[in-house]
Amino acid sequence: MRYWLMKSEPNVFGINHLEKVGTEPWDGVRNYQARNFMRDDMRVGDKVLFYHSNSKPSGVAGLAKVVRTGYPDHTSWDPESKYHDPKSTPETPRWFMVDLGYVSTFKQVVSLDEMRQAEDLADMVLLNRSRLSVQPVDKAHYDLIVAMGKNKR
DNA sequence: GCCAACGTTGGC
DNA sequence: GCCAACGTTGGC
Predict the structure, then answer these.
(1) What is the CATH number of the domain that holds A90?
(2) What are the φ/ψ torsions at residue A135 (nearest 5 degrees)?
(3) Residue nearest to nucleotide C12 (CA to C1')
(4) Which nucleotide is nearest to A7 (CA to C1')?
(5) Total of domains in chain A
(6) What predicted TM-score, i.e. pTM, was given to this entire model?
(7) How far is the CA of A54 from the C1' of B3 (A)?
(8) A110 touches strand C (CB under 7 A)
């Protein structure tokens, strides 16, 4: 069992959208490190912190889980898609995605500011390499953030 | 909307 | 293989 943090802009696709649809293919990731995590390391049942970026406030908004392991991102070879990459083809796909399932929504977002103030979270990837949109999370960090989210109820 | 951080591209 | 130019992310 591994733990992850995945970012999304809530005005594009937030935790409420995920709740509504139940399951969502995580297409459009165009960063090699993020791709490698999805393609190689994610397993069905892995737990995911669902992070709202470009938001007020930005922070973890709820929980999700991996419901399908890595498979080629078909938007990458679709010329109509905004995620089109001419170097990716069905024969040699360059980009991969997983499917995410909805788990729960925090009563209030655990904000980036709160996480920065929590000493125990200081070495989270989020707080040190902030631009990575798919990143691994330690179990202890995951558990603490879930507790912070629950304490708001 | 600004802009710093940082990942990617491509000329050499 | 270096590194300048460029594009994107994401907090503010």
Answers:
(1) 3.10.590.10
(2) -145, 150
(3) A54
(4) C10
(5) 1
(6) 0.93
(7) 15
(8) no
Within A7-153, where are the H helices? 10-13, 15-21, 32-36, 112-117, 139-150
CA dist A95 to A18, A24, A74, A90, Å?
Answer: 22, 16, 8, 10
How much is the pLDDT for A87?
Answer: 85
A65: β partners: A47, A101
Q: Which residues neighbour strand B (beta carbon < 7 Å)?
A: A 31-33, 54, 129-132
pLDDT along chain A (153 residues), means of 10: 96 95 95 94 97 94 96 91 87 93 94 94 89 94 94 59
Distance CA A75, CA A28 (A): 7
Scan for tokens 């930005």, then name that residue: A58
**Which residue range is the domain that position A14 belongs to?**
3-150
Place of tokens 């297409």: A27
